[in-house]
Structures are given as structure tokens and as C-alpha cells.
Amino acid sequence: MPDNENNFLSGKTEVETWNPKLYLDQLTENIQPQSAFYPGMDWDDWSAELAERMVSLLGGFPEHSSFLDPVILERTELDDHIRERVEITTYEGLRMPMYLLLPLRSYERPRPIVIALHGHGYGSREIIGLEPDGSERTGQPGLHKDFALELVRRGFIVVAPELLGFGDRRLREDFTADPKKSSCHYIALRLLMAGGTLAGYRIYEMIRALDYVQTREEADPVRIGCMGISGGGMIASMMSALDERIGATVISGYANTFEDSILTRSHCLDNYIPGILREARMADFIGLIAPRPLLLEAGIEDRVFPLIGAKRAYTILEQIYEAASAKESLKADFFDGGHEISGRMAYDWLEEQLSSKLQD
Could you tell me the pTM of the whole model? Predict the structure, then answer.
């Protein structure tokens, strides 16, 4: 009997039998990540080995750092803080602009640092109260809620880099489109073909941004935090996992499982790292932050990184932090909201972790 008649008799159509999703679901479900953490494992050995593998998956980092060659492009004194735009070299031949928000009179004593990482949208201006063209925003702030402004108003020196592929770092042909249209897809494909990843490039650039701000006399080089939302949450988690200078991290709208988030839809290509499923779960990579303090923000109505996956990740992280003898350093804010910054716990928590008393 012909195959198509067999399919008819079994109740399946040719379209169903040809649908690759069934195969892909089985493929990913059957993968057993070789570096996943399980209770009883030696945390020190596990974390050291996974960190090394993580850098390799990301495409590796340069063996030698390029000279930063910083240039202050603009400086604006506002009512409650000072805003600078600074440009540095990250990779040889690649320059990155970033905003530096300084509390008033920050020269009087060194202030704690927070690296603030925007998600998908129109770039670093979206978290510091500016429109895409650089003018002061008068409307609502959106899902980012100007969280960098909230941080500087609490006394932190805030670094808001322009992530590669967003805002002023898009391809020139994308400048005529919606300001929120990124160049992530093309850049990610080019980097993949060259053996790198867009995530890896962004993480290394954030490490270089931290290298720069530590040279500023206004900054305390040892009290350092990081906070990111969505795609910026991904970079915040992986940067903090690999750079032990980060003393406290807030991950908003990202910490989850791959199965409940990235694999459920066509996300931006910057989320995809070759072979990552075979190495470890998302929570394992985030768990490399332990024993340093970590706070997760997850909206109950988040449809991009759903609550069910966030809670599953938190359960794994509890096991990792317990193994690292740091269970009290892990917190979560499962808040009433969607894919957005909460801040309900995060700002006070960062103050507590990085500076018990921030005076004017």
C-alpha cells in the first residue's frame, strides 16, 4: 500500500508527517546537557569548568585588550545628575559609544558603579530618558521605565552602553527604518560565519566598558553592580557570570529555561549560541554568578519569558546557590506585570548590596 494511503488510514495528513517541528521537539527534548548542575556535585570544580566552556561557546575573547582610547563626546548638566557620552575602543577597529550618568557632586567621594543594559528597542537612550534623536523625552518610558535614571538618582554612577546592533550602532541602511528596528540579524549571521557570536561580542564590550569606568576618579572600582532587561538581561547574566568584578546583579525579564522561552518562538538571532543546549541549561550559566548576590525580576504576565520558566530556573538556581553556601544571596521578584522592569525590590536591593548608605 502506498505511503500516502497509510497516512490517510492512520488519520495523519502529509502536511503533518512533513512538519519538522515534531522532529525538532524530540531532538531538543532528548538532549542531555553535559555540564548541567545537580545536587551533590562539587560546586567549585563544576563552575570553573563551565565558565571555560561558556567562553568557548560564545566564540572566545581577544587574547590581548586594545587600548581604550576614550573620548568624551558630550557633557550635559541636568537638575539631578550629569550626563556624558563617551566613546571607547572595544575590539581592535570597533568603537562603542555609551552614556555615563554621574550623581551631582560625585567628585566628592567615589560612588558605586552599575552597568545598565537596555533590551530590544532604540538603544541606550531608551533607559536614560531620551528620545531616539537624543532630545529629552516627554512621553511614557515604556518597558525599560528609565531604570538608569532611577539608579543615578539613588547615587550610583551608571554606565549605559549602546549594545552592538541597536541605536547608533545599527547598519546605515537600517537608519531609515523605525528607530526600534535593530541590525541584530545581519550582524549575528556575519559573526557566526566568522566563528563568533553576537552575544559574545556584546559581553566582551561590556567588560571593556567596565574597564573604562573603573579608571574614572568619581567611581569606586570595587563596588560594582549590573542590571539588564530582556536581551540586556541576557548580557547582564553572562557578563556577571564571567566577570567576578560584578558584585551584585539584577536580571529582569530573561532568566528562564530555553524550552519555555527561546525555543517556543522565533526570537532575535542574538539569543542563539551554537551548541548551547548540549552544554548546559540557562540556569546553569546564570548560576556561575554564585556566590555573589543575584536578584531575578519576572512579570507574572510576561509572554516572552514566561513565569513558569522563570520559576523553574529559580528552582535550579536555589540548588546551585545552596551548593555554593550562598542561598541567602539569591532573591526573586515575581511581580504583577508583563515583560518590563519592575524595580519594586531591585533598586533598594542594589543599594543594600553595594552601599548601605548613599548620601547626597
Answer: 0.93
